[in-house]
From TrEMBL:
Alphabetically ordered keywords of this record: Metal-binding, Mitochondrion, Oxidoreductase, Potassium, Signal, Thiamine pyrophosphate, Transit peptide
Name of the protein described by the UniProt record: 2-oxoisovalerate dehydrogenase subunit alpha
Family: Belongs to the BCKDHA family.
GO BP, sorted A to Z: branched-chain amino acid catabolic process
Source organism of this protein record: Sinocyclocheilus rhinocerous
Dehydrogenase E1 component domain segment(s): 90-389
């Protein structure tokens, strides 16, 4: 009886989807002298003409503030309260401080790997502030600020990078691969773009639950070159999912500049081809990012459709601790973005002009933020590593014989060569 009921529900769903598709189709008129092809909406022409990629002008970049923090169009000012703007600034600078300390930690051999967020802090905080806490986040690997804005504590950032016993991932992931179920932040994966089709599936589930939630999926312009990006775009559009695709176009996919990655007009230009509502914003303008994400979220929920946001920014730091960016870009280029067009300095100009922030507040906060990060750093270094038994758990509900066999073999090896395995550094 249950199987019969499930089959009925399945066929009803298919029928419903087919009917919805039929309703969207244009009425067929065989007498009309215009194309009747169901695959596209177009007109006939009687002369040979190829569409040239550079004829259409580039998609404009939406911004609210100029580089000096001045509001350009008063009607676009989100008019956020002072406390919220100060929180933006403190989260962005705290992230910056944490980056510097953990980057140096890797250089000193204390952790194995790290990726900084220099220059992209505005994309994190502006987008995170526009979301609801229940919205589901799929990150790539440079969205630490989103998690920080949601309340992820410094101790857990450090625990993950040090893979100690407090790490929510139990020491199984390489550094900067954060995740937190309580904060609706899906654990980051190393392979590029795998999160994009996953986000499309998750947003379809959210749509069917009808829970007033959206899914946001972050990725870089380099990841948009992966096949997974195209699958995710197409699925989300055809299934009409409440999904925000958030592309951080920071100019470089590790050592590959954008002019070697694609010939088209960035990533936002791809949106219309897939049926995505699209916008390009100044990623160094935290208010522009906030406005665009907030409106996209509102419409995604109300209209059940995906949106593509391309945030134009710049990666000031190296791609990771495995990269030396001086090999493929000039010092002058990096200095320009660091000194002349940085999201943190732009927001500070805005606050200073309103009398909300000054040199005294800056010195006090810089000192306090460094103290907070260093205290968490020291606690993380002193913690024990996770129990080695955790290598074999969380795969099956009950440990199956092949896994138990691997575990026993591991312990025999450790006992045989125990001088190479300092078990006193691990939790019992």
């Amino acid at each position: 009886m249950n199987c019969f009921s499930d089959a009925c529900v399945f066929h009803s769903l298919i029928l419903c989807l087919c009917l919805q598709g039929a309703l969207r189709q244009q009425p067929f008129d065989s007498s009309a002298e215009k194309p009747q092809f169901p695959g596209a909406s177009a007109e006939f022409i009687d002369h040979l003409e190829f569409i040239q990629p550079n004829v259409i002008s580039g998609i404009p970049v939406y911004r609210v503030m100029d580089r000096q923090g001045q509001i350009i169009n008063p009607s676009e000012d989100p008019k956020l309260p002072k406390e919220m703007v100060l929180n933006f600034y403190q989260k962005m600078t705290l992230l910056n401080t944490m980056d510097r300390i953990l980057y140096e930690s890797q250089r000193q051999g204390r952790i194995s790997f790290y990726m900084t967020n220099y220059g992209e802090e505005g994309t994190h905080v502006g987008s995170a502030a526009a979301l609801e806490p229940t919205d589901l986040v799929f990150g790539q690997y440079r969205e630490a600020g989103v998690l920080m804005y949601r309340g992820f504590p410094l101790d857990l950032f450090m625990a993950q990078c040090y893979a100690n016993a407090d790490d929510l991932g139990k020491g199984r992931q390489m550094p900067v691969h954060y995740g937190c179920k309580d904060l609706n932040f899906v654990t980051i994966s190393s392979p590029l773009a795998t999160q994009i089709p996953q986000a499309a599936g998750a947003s379809y589930a959210v749509k069917r639950e009808n829970t007033n939630r959206v899914v946001i999926c972050y990725f870089g312009e380099g990841a948009a070159s992966e096949g997974d990006a195209h699958a995710g775009f197409n699925f989300s559009a055809t299934l009409e999912c409440p999904l925000l695709f958030f592309c951080r176009n920071n100019g470089y996919a590790i050592s590959t500049p954008t002019n070697e990655q694609y010939r088209g007009d960035g990533i936002a230009a791809r949106g219309p081809g897939y049926g995505l509502m699209s916008i390009r914003v100044d990623g160094n303008d935290v208010f522009a990012v906030y406005n665009a994400t907030k409106e996209a979220r509102r419409r995604a929920v109300a209209e059940n459709q995906p949106f593509l946001i391309e945030a134009m920014t710049y990666r000031i730091g190296h791609h990771s601790t495995s990269d030396d960016s001086s090999a493929y870009r000039s010092v002058d280029e990096v200095n320009y973005w660091d000194k002349q067009d940085h999201p943190i300095s732009r927001l500070r100009h805005y606050m200073t002009a309103r009398g909300w922030w000054g040199e005294d507040e800056e010195r006090a906060w810089r000192k306090q933020s460094r103290k907070l990060v260093m205290e968490a750093f020291e606690r993380a270094e002193k913690r024990l590593k996770p129990n080695p038994e955790l290598l074999f758990t969380d795969v099956y509900d009950e440990m199956i014989p092949p896994i138990a066999k691997q575990r026993d073999a591991m312990w025999r090896h450790v006992q045989q060569y125990k001088e190479h395995y300092p078990l006193d550094l691990y939790e019992k």
